[in-house]
Amino acid sequence: MSDTLKISQALVRRPSVTPDDQSCQDLIADQLLPHGFTPESMNYGDVRNLWLRRGTQGPLFVFAGHTDVVPTGPEEQWAHPPFSGDVIDGMLHGRGAADMKGSLAAMVTACQRFVQAHPNHPGSIALLLTSDEEGPAVDGTVRVIDALSARNEMIDWCVVGEPTSSERLGDTVKNGRRGSLGGTLTVRGIQGHVAYPHLADNPIHRLSRIVSDLCATHWDDGNEYFPATTFQVSNIEGGTGATNVVPGDAQAKFNLRFCPDSSASSLKERIESACKRHADSFQIDWSPLGLPYQTLPGTLLSAVEDSVKEITGHSPGLSTDGGTSDGRFIAPTGAQVVELGPLNRTIHQVDEVVDADDLDALSNVYEKVLDRILK
User: Fold this and answer.
1) Cis (ω within 30 of 0) for the bond into 100?
2) Using CA atoms, how far apart are residues 54 and 37, in angstroms rounded to an integer?
3) What is the pLDDT, as a whole number, of residue 358?
């Protein structure tokens, strides 16, 4: 069993459901302490964050990732217990195997080998780890970035280990992400008896018209780098539980993944306008905003593309689709940010799994990126 697989397995066996780190960050720090990395805890509330840095001079290369995982879902539906870390026929099973404990292990072993081969490398290497990526993402990476910026500790290049590959390792890297704008819409009506609708004001009916309006809205066309903006409702709540009562309010949770062609302020204005068309009384509680970002061709993107081709034999495609990542907090500092990780086919699903050979190859890719940038 390779070192990368051993570390991956040890991490998977720790049930670090967000925001509980379960000492995953301690395990990683222990692996890198003998190689000259200095750990610094930056904890906020229930969230654990770790800044592991080797060197004090610029330029600064960072691997970023998260130790928290999403809940398992029904454990009885798993073929292997979700935190067993079982390795069967070369596949590592368990929650977080692909998203993204395997990537974290690959980062660790890549750093170990690189430092052993180049103990006097120029610049600095760091790992930025959080237990608040799968959760609200309020006390995680964004807080660490604020703390680093306050002391003028600036990141030049960052590789985020999110699972980006589709069919084979390295076939896709993310050089950007759409923005994320979400919120909770509450529509207020007048509670009453269903038999006397003229004495009530049904907020569910009003909310449904707002949702229909927003679902039919054409937000933008996207561009050559980003897909078009999309709107989705994830939850709707309303009603007292009784079948003969019109409720007093109704709620919908919504999210837009938006292209830079549409600004967050313009999207908010259009949503509020739709609400005003269909409701006399409403409130929108906006969630923390995730801004879109894009890393253009340059030092980091070239290093990642060339390293993937050297190790896997094929060139990766570039993509900005999918969900968000903590790269959205790092890119605004001016850092070049690229995401590269294993296959994403089973992430967040029952029976999450990752190929052990892919993790070894990913570690080699990460090491080659370091070679090209800091050697």
Assistant:
1) yes
2) 4
3) 98
DSSP secondary structure, 211-277, as one string: HHHHHT-------SSSPPPEEEEEEEEE--S-TTEE-SEEEEEEEEEE-TTS-HHHHHHHHHHHHHH
Q: What are phi and psi of 2, to 5 degrees?
A: -70, 160
Distance linking the first and last C-alpha atoms of the chain: 28
Alpha-carbon separation of residue 42 from 20, 47, 68, 128 (angstroms)? 14, 9, 15, 10
Query: How much is the pTM?
Result: 0.89
Residues that are catalytic: 68, 133
Task: Write the pLDDT tens digit of every residue in 24-56.
Answer: 999 999 999 999 999 999 999 999 999 999 999
Residue 151 has pLDDT above 90, yes or no: yes
Measure the CA–CA gap between 68 and 130, rounded to whole angstroms.
7
Rg of the chain on CA atoms, in Å: 23
Residue 34 structure tokens: 């003998």
Amino acid of residue 22 = Q
Dihedral angle computed from the Cα positions of residues 273, 225, 308 and 360, in that order, rounded to the nearest 10 degrees: 10
Q: Could you tell me which of 295, 271, 270 has the C-alpha nearest to residue 283? A: 271
pLDDT of residue 45: 95
Overall size of the chain counted in residues: 375
